[in-house]
Design brief:
- This protein has 522 residues and is an alpha/beta fold.
- It has two domains: 296 residues, Rossmann fold (3-Layer(aba) Sandwich); 191 residues, 3-Layer(aba) Sandwich (Rossmann fold).
- 34% of the residues lie in helices and 16% in strands.
- It has 18 helices and 18 strands.
- It has an eleven-stranded mixed β-sheet, sandwiched between helices. Strands 1-2-5 form a three-stranded mixed β-sheet, with no helix packed on it.
- Helix 14 crosses helix 18.
- 54% of the residues are buried.
Length: 522
């Protein structure tokens, strides 16, 4: 993938040691692969839909990303790239285009001219099967539009798209056979590495410092951040990382092969003379329909995930970290208090809860212990008990495990946060601090659907933007008028509590409950 750093055209020779000269034309970025004219956002320039890799079409499907064709004339970068092929989360209908491998760059006006601004690269979530950098928080308004974050921090913000679902993670023996390193899968991860190589080669043209890059992502985006931390191929491409509500997990090769075999069988390609050629002849819609994923915040990971391949991903990320074989950088990690709160129906009953406990914990002694710790009486309702249990097991307690593993295996600083804020809107009180809610604060999108945020909510948003931004700057997260975010100490389980009622350092996040799961080996 070194090809991607030089895409064949036009010429920046910036080696990262000095900032490039200010552009002759306002908002014009001359990259190593073409010139791009940004869109004036007032306090920043937005460059949308900049291709970092060629469309993985035809014979390129299920292969490592390749360099794009460089434009011969200046491109007005005013439109997001299409979403990568996926099933619409509302209708279940296929959408998207394989020509989706693009970044969006948001450069503060002052930093764009001056150069050498820290860089924040955001990886969207969606279970690695849905989602995009152009995801809307309400009709016509992109959640991950990084202009507000760039202007608040003075950093260059980059959002990236990568292959998803069967097109991003498929593992098959036939694909192994044609790969130079004899392994298949993890194409989405290769895309992310390629995007970071593009950043390293070109971000100077947008005023960014290639030697101060932070990767951050939420949900599956957080999983992919941890995967990059564990991948030797990403070494040197980032200097800080932040995991929001994501784990350090990966499928085994056996599981990934089983998923691939099921897809091949469902498409009728398993009995073809050349199963890979048969699969390449299928449209994205046919592939998506053959093994449609079930997306559940509180449930199991959907099929198609990063998988252990021995090279790009040598082991399960948590185990790579524990062995000290990861990319050692400043890392922050955290979760929200009621991660599954928005997913669980408000009508969730005691009978449903008991059925869940019986199905999930077949051992009577374990089930009794879980039911006692997470009783409806303790939490006020069966629904709230279920939300607490699933949030703990999938998000909150794993964040402690990961933070502890990082501290034990590196000298670089580790930080932990716990997001407990619930907006003042009446409907928000029913769901709590649910999965992804912190993104509204981070990207400055609190005023959705007519909501008027309080002064305290705006202040929390500003503090979060500064913490994230300064972590990218030098690995030390700070915010004006807010407490210093101290390094994580496993003995105290100290963390930054993010709440509009007051940002503060605290100790212990549902400690008794996480100790319980740790004792069970969960």
């Amino acid at each position: 993938m070194a090809l991607l750093s030089g895409c064949g055209g036009g010429g920046s020779s910036d080696d990262g040691s000095t900032p490039p000269p200010p552009p002759v034309t306002a908002g014009l970025a001359q990259t190593s692969c073409g010139a791009y004219q940004g869109i004036d956002r007032g306090g920043s320039w937005a460059f949308l839909g900049v291709r970092y890799a060629a469309a993985p079409l035809g014979a390129r499907r299920w292969k490592s990303p390749e360099a794009p064709t460089c434009p011969s004339t200046t491109v007005v970068a005013s439109s997001f790239a299409p979403v990568c092929p996926q099933l619409d989360r509302s209708t279940g209908s296929p959408e998207g285009d394989e020509d989706c491998l693009a970044v969006n760059v948001f450069a503060p006006r002052g930093s764009f001219a001056a150069g050498r601004a820290p860089v924040m690269v955001f990886i969207h979530g969606g279970g690695n099967v849905i989602g995009s950098a152009r995801e809307e928080v309400e009709p016509g308004r992109v959640l991950y539009d990084g202009a507000a974050l760039a202007e608040a921090t003075g950093n260059v913000v980059v959002t990236v798209q990568y292959r998803l679902g069967p097109l991003g993670w498929l593992v098959l023996p036939g694909l192994d056979a044609e790969a130079p390193d004899a392994r298949s899968g993890n194409y989405g991860l290769e895309d992310l590495v390629a995007s970071l190589e593009w950043v390293r080669a070109n971000i100077g043209a947008f005023g960014g410092n290639r030697d101060r890059v932070m990767i951050f992502g939420e949900s599956a985006g957080g999983v992919n951040v941890c995967t990059l931390i564990a991948s030797p191929r990403a070494a040197g491409l980032f200097q800080a990382a932040l995991i929001q509500s994501g784990g350090c997990v990966a499928d085994s090769r056996q599981k990934a092969l089983a998923t691939g075999a099921e897809l091949a069988a469902n498409t009728g390609c398993s009995t073809a003379a050349d199963p890979v050629a048969c699969l390449r002849s299928k449209s994205p819609a046919e592939l998506l329909a053959a093994l449609p994923p079930v997306i559940s915040v509180g449930g199991a990971q959907p099929p198609y995930q990063p998988s252990v391949d021995g090279t790009l991903l040598p082991g399960v990320p948590l185990e790579v970290i524990r062995a000290g074989q990861h990319n050692r950088t400043a890392v922050a990690i955290g979760a929200n208090a009621q991660e599954t709160g928005q997913e669980v129906p408000l009508t969730f009953s005691e009978a449903q809860y008991q059925l869940f406990l019986s199905a999930t914990f077949p051992d009577p002694a374990v089930r009794a212990a879980v039911a006692n710790l997470y009783s409806s009486a303790n939490f006020g309702s069966a629904r709230l008990a279920y939300v607490a249990l699933t949030s703990d097991v999938k998000f909150i307690c794993p964040s402690r495990t990961i933070a502890r593993a990082l501290v034990a295996s590196q000298s670089e600083p580790v930080y932990r946060y716990f997001f407990t804020e619930v907006p003042d809107a009446p409907i928000s009180q029913q769901y709590g601090a649910f999965h992804g809610l912190e993104l509204l604060y981070l990207f400055g999108k609190l005023d959705v659907r007519g909501y008027v945020p309080t002064a305290a909510e705006k202040a929390l948003s500003a503090s979060m933007q500064q913490y994230w931004g300064t972590l990218a700057k030098d690995g030390v997260p700070l915010a004006t008028g807010a407490p210093a975010w101290g390094r994580y100490d496993p003995a105290r389980d100290n963390h930054l509590l993010l709440n509009a009622g007051g940002v503060a350092m605290a100790e212990g996040v549902v400690t008794q409950r996480c100790d319980f799961w740790q004792a069970l080996g969960v």
